[in-house]
Each structure stands twice: as C-alpha cells, then as structure tokens.
Specification:
Aminoglycoside 3'-phosphotransferase, Chain: A, domain 2; five-stranded antiparallel β-sheet; Nucleoside Triphosphate Pyrophosphohydrolase; about 450 residues; alpha+beta
Length: about 450
C-alpha cells in the first residue's frame, strides 16, 4: 500500500488534504459534541484541500466555523498526525464557543460514560476525547499548559485591548482575532483606524526574555528598526504593538537579504555600548563563558538522550571538553559579544515606511553575534537564502572594525559548532517546559542541532 501511494503521488500529483476535527465542549457540563451520520459517529469534521500547518489559525477557524455554524476560538491542537504517503494531515483542535450555546441543530452532547459505549468512526480519537473530558470533569489542567490555551483567556485579552484602545483614542473596526497560537506564544490582531495592532503573550520560559520590556527598551535604542510598543500589561506579560506592516518573507530578493543582515550587524555593533542596560531590562546573559557551563547539563538531559542512539550519545560526550575549549578560543577574538535576536529569519522582519523592523525578540540575549546566523550555517536545503556566501559576506564585512577579514573568517568557522550548541540549549529548555503534545516540534529542532554538533571534527 505505501508503494501504491508513492506512485499515485508521483504520477497524478496527488494534492495534500487536511482533515480538521473539533472538540467543542458543552458550556456548563463535562460533555463534548459528537455528530452522527450514515458512516458513524465522530467529532465535527471538515476536509481542506491543502497541507495546513497547526498554526494557520485564521484558515482553520474559518473552516470549522462554517461547519458548525457558530463563532469559535481555537484553544490548542490536541493531536496532529501527518501521513506523507497518503499526503494527509489529521488534526484535532480543542475549541471554545464565543457565545453560550447548549443546543445545536445536529449532534449530541456526550460525557465520559456515554463515550465508553460509543462506536466512533475514528476509534483512535476516543483516547484524545477521553483525556479532554477527564481534564474538565476533574478540573485537573496540566501545569505546563499556557494561559492562552485555557478557556476565557481570549475574552480577557480582548477586554484589555478594548480598554487600551479607549485610552489611546483609537477606534476598533473589527473583533479581536487570534492569528497564531502554539506552545510558546499567542498573537492576537485587531483592526483599528490606525492600522492593525497586535497583542502578544510569550511563555515565561527560563531562556526567554521579558519581551515587552526588552522590546520597549530596544525601541529607545534603535527607534527606526523596532516596532512601537503601545501598552504593556506586566502582570499578564502582554504587549500591544502598533502596526508595522507585513513580514518581508523568506523568499525576498538577495538585495533585501543583504540589507537585513547588514542592518543586523550594525544593530549588534551599536548594542555593545548598551550591554549592561540590556541585561538589566531582561536580556539573558548567554555569553560564551555561560555557554561553556551548559554543555554538561545538555549532554545529560533525558530528552536529549532519548533523541540519540547509544553511539551518538558516546560521541556527544566525547565532544564536551572540545566545545568548552572552543568557547575560550572564540572569546579570544576581538569580536565583541552583543545583542542577539535568537530567531532571526525573514519572517521576523517587516518593511515599514522604507525601514526594516525586526520583531519577535522572545529569544533575545547577550551572546556571540554569529549565533544569529544559524540559517547560514545549517538548514540550507529548505531555507532559500542562496547565494548564501554573498549575503554572509555582507554581514561579516561589518565586523572588520574589530578584526581583519581573515581573522573574521577564522572566527566564523569556530563559531559554527557553538552556534549549534547555543540553539540546542535553547530547544532543550523549551522542550522541558512544554506539555507532551507540544514537545515533538521542538524536540525535532533540538535533534537537528544535536546532529550538527555530531559533525564536529575535533
């Protein structure tokens, strides 16, 4: 059967399909909606002829709303299965209804007891539904679940936005909508007479900065290149951002890519005189000395060990002394340690009034500047940055104020394994702070960076 599917994909160009299922809870009881038809009982379901990612919230929301005939909010993706041979994605979303509803034209409200005796069209869904019903019946919500994945968060955030808009004397033109939600952050958008405004809440993970405060401070230091923070809710870790245009996107022309990475280097260089201030407002200290102390913890982490084979684990452990020494070697170059964005790609850069704006500073820290160049060290096959060398050189040329070109290229080579180490540590901490359903995506990235480390030649 897998061979047949491969042939179908190859010769008839079979398109991807996304099957979306919804867990819609009863507003007052521990029950969920189940629909019945000629083929059996199931969660509300819609099929889309596209390969939808879990975070394509507006599209998924629209499809499910059309199916149910009600307004909804997506809380989180409870399960996501990808079948490459069939080109199918099956995803189950936990949703909440934006208005109290107890009656629908079709379907039945099913509790845990009824579920046990129910024959589902997709038997594999029963465990997911059971886990959800058990949660709400016992009010035992996992400790690691983020606030935005809980019932009522959107209403609370929307009311705060509406209050802030009144204070700003802005007119709201459309309801607040969620445009992205996943394990580490949530982003809302509201249309106003001053453009689209965005509320963001990011997780308070150990290696994440205090993004609202840091972004506000960066705006003071680099006013032309950072979005404007209109308001902050310190208790909730919310920030409301002014309109800053659309991301320029990963497929931007080479000239734009050169402009962006030249600008990055210039911001990093200018940040040197503000290091103490940036540390004080919430940027984390992830300089080379700190990185060296994180090697042993990384290599002994249970999640890390679970991703590797025994031979790979042994190889990784043999690299520990080498990597610690490499931190010292790289620190000997005159290239200063600077502000690092932490997740710089062209989806986190916008063009507004002829200025590039760098946003999403959740991972920002003080570290070696070359650690922001991970796209040039790794993942070249699915990040269209060619011609890579000319863009990289545009970035590296900015550092000749500190070292000769030959010395900069030496430092560039030394920094490669340490760049992988830096980002592996990031994903280690993220993976350890997420619910199990959210871990896979970040564990895959962690595994990628670990395998880059294994390519090191001592």
């Amino acid at each position: 059967m897998p061979l047949i599917n491969q042939l179908l994909n190859k010769y008839i160009n079979r398109k991807w399909k996304s099957h979306l299922y919804a867990i819609l809870p009863h507003p007052t009881e521990a029950k969920v909606l189940i629909l019945a038809n000629k083929t059996g009982c199931s969660l509300p379901h819609v099929c889309v002829n596209d390969d939808l990612e879990c975070d394509e919230i507006p599209v998924i929301k629209k499809e499910l709303e059309q199916k149910l005939g009600i307004s909804i909010n997506i809380l989180y993706c409870a399960e996501n299965n990808l079948n490459k041979s069939k080109r199918e994605i099956h995803s189950i979303y936990v949703i909440e209804n934006n208005h109290s509803i107890t009656k629908l034209d079709t379907g039945s409200w099913i509790d845990l007891t009824n579920l046990q005796n129910l024959s589902l069209k997709f038997p594999e869904h029963k465990l997911v539904i059971e886990e959800y019903l058990t949660e709400i019946e016992t009010d035992n919500i996992p400790e690691l679940r983020p606030p935005w994945a809980k019932t009522g968060w959107l209403d609370c955030a929307s009311r705060w936005i509406e209050t802030e808009l009144l204070d700003l004397n802005y007119q709201q033109l459309a309801p607040v909508e969620c445009i992205k939600t996943w394990g580490i952050s949530c982003i809302l958008r509201v249309r106003t007479n001053h453009g689209n405004l965005y509320l963001k809440e990011a997780s308070t993970l150990p290696l994440f900065c205090n993004e609202p405060v840091v972004t506000q401070e960066l705006k003071k230091l680099f006013p032309e290149y950072i979005p404007t923070v209109l308001s902050i809710n310190s208790e909730r870790h919310w920030m409301l951002l002014a309109d800053f245009g659309e991301p320029i996107g990963r497929n931007s022309p080479v000239k734009i890519k050169k402009d962006v990475y030249r600008l990055l280097a210039q911001i990093q260089i200018k940040s040197v005189e503000h290091i103490d201030n940036l540390l004080n407002v919430g940027c984390l200290d992830r300089r080379l000395g700190k990185l060296a102390t994180q090697v042993d913890d990384l290599f002994n982490d249970e999640i890390v060990l679970s991703l590797l084979k025994e031979a790979e684990i042994n190889q990784l452990n043999s690299l520990a002394p080498y990597l610690k020494n490499l931190c010292s070697q790289l620190a000997e170059y005159k290239i200063p340690q600077t502000l690092v964005h932490g997740d710089l790609h062209l989806g986190n850069v916008a063009l507004d009034k002829d200025n590039y704006l760098l946003f999403d500073w959740t991972d920002s820290c003080i570290a070696h500047p070359f650690f922001d160049m991970f796209l040039f060290y790794f993942r070249r096959s699915y990040n269209p940055l060619a011609p890579i060398k000319s863009i990289r050189d545009e970035y590296l040329n900015q550092w000749t104020v500190y070292e000769s070109k030959s010395r900069i290229l030496e430092a560039w080579k030394l920094a490669k394994p340490l760049c992988a180490l830096h980002h592996a540590v990031t994903y280690q901490y993220i993976s350890n702070c997420l619910e199990s359903r959210e871990k896979d995506l970040f564990s895959n990235a962690l595994g990628d960076f670990l395998r880059e480390l294994l390519k090191c030649k001592i």
